[in-house]
Structure formats: structure tokens, C-alpha cells
Amino acid sequence: MSTPTGESLRSRRRRETQQEIHLTALRLAREHGFDKVTVEMISAAAGVSPRTFFNYFPSKDAAVAQGPPDLPDELVAEFVAAGPAPQRTVLVDVARLLVRHLAERPPQREELLGVFELSHDHPQVLATMLARFEAFQLQVADAVARRLGKEAGDEVPALIASVALTVLRQGLERWARSPGEDSPVPYVERSMHLLQTLLAP
What we know:
The protein has 10 helices and no strands. By secondary structure, it is mainly alpha-helical. The chain has 2 domains: 1-63, Arc Repressor Mutant, subunit A (Orthogonal Bundle), CATH 1.10.10; 65-199, Orthogonal Bundle (Tetracycline Repressor, domain 2), CATH 1.10.357.10. The chain is globular, with a radius of gyration of 18 Å. 30% of the residues are buried.
């Protein structure tokens, strides 16, 4: 996984620890069954204390179903600085923003497939995953609102963010379940192209 531009050493170490705990939780859940895995098991296997575990995740559900990483400030600033534009243009631009973010922080296929499989079998994992995507969607909606000069809670930014996240999720799930490309980016780009086709006059 590549290191995001401008990331401090402290931030990188924290990100790496968080990822190690997540991957350990996911591996144990797939090997032993989600219900049999405990925070203590995850902590021991990841080489951290339970206290450290809870510094990163509030529960084992959250450790397994880690959601998308936050958008980098520099990418958001660049998106917002492009200024007001027709809503259709902003929708395409925010989808491209998500593709750029994904290219910088690509998931591993087995990792993503494992999360999707566990979410299908365990409602609590699905609920946690959806909550993480919702939090990320709120971040995207805030960036869209700033770009359009609207309030953060306005329905237009919320709808644009929701559609863009649907494009992202569809591309990621198709990639996770299909052999071929090492990167999910082409799958998300194909979903984005389909969206543009549907929006074409």
C-alpha cells in the first residue's frame, strides 16, 4: 500500500498499527468464525494490548469492518477550489475524487472480499460496515456542500455523495469478486463511466 502524500511519520505509524489490527481481526474471524473471536485474541495476535486495541477500534465488529480511510485534506481542498459548477459536473468530479483517493490507498482483494463475506453472514458486521460508509459519505457530502456553497445538511450535497458512494461500493464489490485486475480502480472507473452514460442527455 502506498504512503499518502504529506503523511507524517506519526500518522503513518498509527495508520499501519490500525491496519495490522484490522487485518488480524479479519484473518482470525475467517479462520475461527466471527462469534468465537475475542478482542483479547485479536490483541494478542496483533502484538498489542487490549487497551491499545480500544484506542483504535470500539469493538471487534469495527476492527473487522474497517471502512474507507478519510479523504486527505489536500484532495478535498483541490476539489473545493474548483468552484461552483453544474450539479452533474460536481457529481462526476466527486466520483473522480474518490477514484484518486482509492488509487492512493487501494485495499487488498482478499481483505475486501473477507469483509464483504463476513458482512453477509453477520448482521452486526454489516451494520458496522454501513455505519462506516455513512460516516465517510457525510465527509464527502461536506466537501460537495463547500464546493456548491450550500449548507452541509442540504439534500443536494447529500444526494450527490450518496450516488458517488454507490458507484464506489459497486466497483469495489465487483472487483473483490472477480479475478483479473490487481487494482480496484478500473472497476470503479467503469462504474463511473456507466454513471456518466446514464446522465448523458
